Amino acid sequence: AVALVGGAVVGCCALQVYSKKIAELRSLVVARMARRKGLGTKLIQFCVRKAERKHIHEVMVVTSSPRLFKRSGFGYFSSQKHILFKRFV
Description:
Elements: E1 2-5, E2 8-17, E3 22-30, H1 39-53, E4 58-60, H2 66-70
Parallel strand pairs: 3-4
Antiparallel strand pairs: 1-2, 2-3
């Protein structure tokens, strides 16, 4: 999905579908000059609706801006037993 202002691309977001069970919302970015106008939220909502239309059960996101996604209905797992990380130091 892309956000346009005056014909210029000012934001984008992607839905990466892994299976009927899960998809990931990825690569959300809004140009600095276009922020705080609700474009990020609209891009998130567009991708979530796309997942719903595909009958996907869960959409996940890895983010450094959790408040933005919480406002769109995302939440933390109560138990993160299915998320594993490998760290390279």
